[in-house]
Design brief:
This protein has 16 helices and 15 strands. By secondary structure, it is α/β, with parallel strands linked by helices. A 7-stranded mixed β-sheet has the order 12-11-10-9-13-14-15, with helices on both faces. A 4-stranded antiparallel β-sheet has the order 2-3-1-4. β2 and β3 form a beta hairpin. The termini are far apart. 33% of the residues are buried.
Length: 416
């Protein structure tokens, strides 16, 4: 009996892996026609990706087919592409190349968000070069914001955001973060680096600082101006926000300077609070997405409760001013909501709402916000002081509060 099997063909020998790239003017039915050809030959699609830039299509399909029919399949694809008036390119893929691609799918995935009033080729190049130096591969790029204006005079309130999907393990994570911080400061745009894990798109609780975050002012400075001690209080506030003095100590000193101020002044300030750019849009979208929203503030409950009613906020924790006979006494009631207390409250609310701490977000601008920024799953320093930006994992400095939405991966076309 002949036992020589050298002439026997393995089932794998009849398999071909082919990558097709289709480019040209996009129009309805194009993908259906091309995949219809593949379907007639019972091809198995292993990977597929499509992008459309200004009505120009770039479609890639990696498929597996039997070598006995591959010639006819490729001819039909070529003929179909000609009828559709698009270009098609064929690239054979070896099993080793395919296996290498499969192996890369098990590596960590990162989301890099570039955000600013506008983004230039230099911005994209600097970030891409840094990713390359770290051995990271860009899998995909998408624009999250709407179309950019062509007129420079419209750039003042414009927003530009591009999101990179990146795969691999950084060779030096700390250096990557440091370089992104340096690049963003020098080039005046924001860069966010987040691991793309199960929690990134399933956040459920967001906690905001109030003064200089939800509103464009420090309320205690407004009260101090009415009391005639504006310069004194402002100087203490700035030292506290820079982390130069203990927050509780600074708070006690500032409140004492308000002694004798009439309670009616608080109402007048409350109705004229200037909301931060993008504040209303951000909260409206987050409420629609089912988020619980909290104010955790070193400011005052009087103003926090006013914003709670105005913006539909769920929780407010701040400081209570003592008022007797319609006048501020220069004292406060209860414990001060300082940095440590903010972090505790974030964890408490997460527990009450049955939310994993990794599903929480914290946004603030001052040194007293750092503990809650570090505690939250996603901590964002918003138009923050240099010390805060250096220590926070993420920072947003070039556009309004709705930049938070892009850090979460929301596209304008979905949320506008």
């Amino acid at each position: 009996m002949n036992t020589d099997n050298s002439h026997v063909t393995s089932p794998d020998d009849n398999i071909e892996l082919i990558l097709i790239n289709i480019t040209g003017k996009d129009h309805p039915g194009l993908t259906a026609s091309l995949t219809g050809v593949l379907a007639r030959y019972d091809a198995q699609i292993l990977d597929i990706g499509q992008a459309d830039i200004h009505h120009n299509l770039s479609l890639g399909i990696l498929f597996r087919t039997n070598s006995k029919v591959s010639g006819d399949l490729l001819k039909d694809l070529l003929f179909t592409a000609y009828e559709l008036k698009v270009k098609i390119r064929f690239t054979p893929i070896s099993p080793d190349d395919y296996q290498s691609w499969v192996d890369r799918q098990g590596k960590a995935r990162w989301i890099i968000t570039l955000l600013g009033r506008r983004l230039t080729a230099r911005h994209i190049a600097l970030v891409s070069e840094e990713l390359s130096s770290q051995g990271l591969n860009i899998d995909g790029i998408q624009r999250l914001t709407g179309r950019m204006p062509l007129c420079d005079t419209e750039l003042e309130k414009s927003k530009a955001c591009v999101e990179f999907s990146v795969r691999g393990d950084p060779s030096d994570y700390e250096r990557l973060q440091s370089r992104f911080l340096q690049i963003s400061a020098e080039q005046e745009f924001d860069i966010s680096l987040q691991q793309d894990n199960i929690y990134r798109r399933s956040r459920r609780l967001i906690c905001f600082d109030m003064d200089s975050t939800l509103i464009e002012t420090e309320v205690i400075d407004e009260l101090a101006m009415r009391a005639g001690v504006g310069d004194q209080v402002k100087a203490i506030t700035e030292r506290a926000m820079r982390g130069e003095i203990d927050f509780t100590e600074s708070f006690r000193e500032r409140v004492a300077l308000l002694k004798g101020l009439d309670e009616s002044v608080m109402q007048d300030i409350a109705v004229n609070l200037p909301l931060t750019e993008g504040c209303e849009r951000t909260l409206k979208v987050l409420k629609r997405m089912g988020y619980k929203i909290a104010i955790l503030s070193g400011g005052f409950t009087y103003f926090g409760n006013y914003l709670k009613q105005r913006l539909g906020i769920d929780y407010v924790y701040a400081n209570e001013l003592e008022i007797i006979d319609g006048k501020l006494t220069g004292h406060y009631v209860g414990d001060v909501v300082d940095g440590r207390r903010k972090a505790e409250l974030l964890k408490l609310i997460a527990q009450v709402e049955n939310v994993n701490i990794a599903q929480t977000i914290a946004v603030g601008d001052g040194a007293n916000d750092l503990p809650m920024l570090a505690t939250a799953g996603l901590g964002i320093a918003f138009h923050a002081k240099p010390k805060v930006k250096r220590e926070a994992r993420q920072s947003l400095s070039t556009i309004g509060l709705d930049g938070v939405l892009y850090f979460l991966g929301y596209k304008d076309s979905f949320i506008s």
